[in-house]
Amino acid sequence: MFDQAGDGVEADQGLAPSGFSMLQAKEERPMYSHIMIPVDLHLPPEVRRAAKVAAAIAEWQGAKITLVSVTGTQPGDPVQSDAAIDKNLRDFAKQLAESSGTEVAYRNIHSVDVAAEVDGDLTRTAEEIEADLIVVGTHAPRITDYIFSSHAGYLAKHASVSVFVVR
Predict the structure, then answer these.
(1) Are 125 and 36 in contact (CB under 8 A)?
(2) CA-to-CA distance for 52 and 55, rounded, in angstroms?
(3) pLDDT tens sequence across 98-123
(4) CB distance 42 to 80 below 8 Å
(5) Sheet with 34-38, edge to edge strand ranges
(6) How far is CA 30 from the centre of its chain?
(7) Any residues with CB less than 8 A from the CB of 37 and at least 6 apart, and which?
(8) Residues near 148 by Cβ (< 8 Å), separated by ≥ 6?
(9) What whole-number distance in Å separates Cα of residue 125 and Cα of residue 136?
């Protein structure tokens, strides 16, 4: 039998089995349990927006978050000690945990050549920590993005888990 709107959908047909609601599905097994957020320690607006989205998803799903930063000496950047990097990550993790009410861990990966290794390091880390979602901030497309993929584009293409790209 079709509904009165005539769109071909049966009026009593639902997507879930009888007596089963989508709310029950969420309560039984969350869609995401571990969210990874790649973090640039300069904390540009893209990273802050991604963190806000990840916090909302983590709160909704009861997931934990891991902040991941890939650092090394890059031309033009001031040299930061491991202690300073650790403090920046710890402070950001604490702020995110307080605002979201979720567990937030962090990990710093030291790289000899950040520009060349960051994409592979992030992809590998997502697998190592068993993240099931990566939430990554990105910028509006630039002319160079048509030649070289952005970090978010690389993750979306190569990561074995879901990737949520936030602009």
Answers:
(1) yes
(2) 5
(3) 988 999 999 999 998 888 899 999 99
(4) no
(5) 104-110, 64-71, 34-38, 133-137, 162-166
(6) 16
(7) 47, 50, 51, 54, 65, 66, 67, 68, 134, 135, 136
(8) none
(9) 14
Would the pTM of this model clear 0.85, i.e. be above it? no
**pLDDT of res. 39:** 95
d(CA 103, CA 109): 20
The encoded tokens of residue 137 equal 């901030």
3-class SS letters over the chain = CCCCCCCCCCCCCCCCCCCCCHHHHHHHCCCCCEEEEECCCCCCHHHHHHHHHHHHHHHHHCCEEEEEEEECCCCCCCCCCHHHHHHHHHHHHHHHHHHHCCCEEEEEEECCCHHHHHHHHHHHHHHHCCCCEEEEECCCCCHHHHCCCCHHHHHHHHCCCEEEEEC
- Residue 160: name the closest of 119, 138, 135, 131 by CA: 131
Token reading at 32: 């995401």
